Amino acid sequence: MKLVFILGDAAVGKMTVGQELMKITDLRLFHNHITIEPVLEVFGEWNFNVISECRDVMFREFSKTDKYGMIATLMFAFDEQEDWDYLEHIKEIFKPYDTEFYYVELFAPQEIRLQRNVTENRLKHKASKRDIELSNKRLLNDDASHRFVSYDGEVEFDNYIKIDNSDLPPETVAKIIKETFNL
User: Fold this and answer.
1) Residue-wise pLDDT tens digits, 160-181
2) Are 45 and 1 a contacting pair, CB within 8 Å?
3) 107 backbone dihedrals φ, ψ, rounded to 5°
4) pTM score, whole prediction
5) What letter does residue 93 receive in the DSSP assignment?
6) How far apart are alpha carbons 39 and 95 in whole angstroms?
């Protein structure tokens, strides 16, 4: 099995690139808002314990299948040990199944991500982003609080690629990923 992590900041294009990558491979997409949105709907607020448990169920059950693989998107702060630990936690779920891991880091400047924050596709799949003012405020606050772009040489994983997708359409980024990792 293959597990492709797409990591990056808010509104960088993780889900959209994942959607395009799914179209040209046999990988299935599990974007992070698949679990976030129902938890927000039920609880009326962020509850990471519930979100994490829902994700774990999805990861555990998927890892046992004979599927080709999965694309998992994660907002990832490189200055937060919790994010590194969570990535390792997910990998531990898949390791017993001889999973090959791939890492894609996407990055784009804040002004581009603010434009992407209001795209039709994003708002369609992420109800919590439909309050544009609040969503933009979260994006700006997150940027001020954490570092979502890795330093050169910081990520030492095998099968890793860092892509500035500022001026690249998602189809092109997906093709780069597919070709780089021979998916």
Assistant:
1) 999 999 999 999 999 999 999 9
2) no
3) -150, 150
4) 0.91
5) H
6) 27
